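User: Sequence in, structure out. Go.
Assistant: Echoing your sequence, followed by the C-alpha cells.
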Amino acid sequence: MEDIIKLIKDNQLFENINENEISAILKCSKATVESYQENQIVFEKEDTIQKMGIVLEGEFNLVSQKYSGTRVIVTSLEKGDLFGEALIFSSIKKSPYDLVSSGNSKVLLIPYGIFVNMCQEVCNFHKQLISNMLTILSDKIVMLNNKMTILNAETLKGRIALYLLSINKKTKTLTFNMPMNRQELAEFLNVTRPSLSRELSNMQKDGLIEIYRSSVKIKDIERLKELAD
C-alpha cells in the first residue's frame, strides 16, 4: 500500500493526516484497490453503494441514462477525484447513476464504516478524517449548485461561457486543456454534439475563444462574462 499512500496523501480526504496515519486508516477500513478497463461499469443505477472511491489512475464518467436511451454525463472524474462519498451517507444508498471507466483505470475503495464507527482509541486522525469528509460533502453541494447554474443558462452559448469561466476560475489561466472531449461535453451540457461544435465554432469566429484540439484559449473574458449573466 506504500505506493498508494504516496498517490493519495495530498488528497483533501487526508488533509492534516500523515502517511503512517493514512496507512492505519486503510488497514482499519479494509480498503482495496480495483482495476477497470475501457467502458467497464464500476456500479450501475440502483446499485447499493457501501464504499466510496478515490481515482488513482485513468478517468471515469458518472452517467445518467434517460428513458429514451440518451446518455448524459453528469460529471467526469480524474486522478484524485472522489466518488460515492455522498451516497454512502444517504438513507437510500442506491445510486441514481452509472459509473463507467473511460480507458484503463484504477481506484481505491474505502468501506463507509470507517466514517461512522470510531475506533476504541478515538484517534485524533480519525476525527480529522471525519472532519475532512464533512468539508468534502459541503464542497460537493456547492459544485452541484454551480452545475445547475450552468444548465439553467437560457442559451447554449451561455452554458458554454459559464463552463469555460468555471475552468478559468479553477485553473487561474486563460489557456487550458478541456477536461472532457467534445462528446462528453455535449452530454454534460445536455445538447447534441453537432450543436455544441457549431456554437464553439461561432464563438471562435466571434473572437471569444481560440480552440486547438483539446486546448482552449479565452481571448475575450469580459464578453464571456456578459454571455454568462
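User: And one key feature?
Assistant: The two ends are 48 Å apart (CA to CA).
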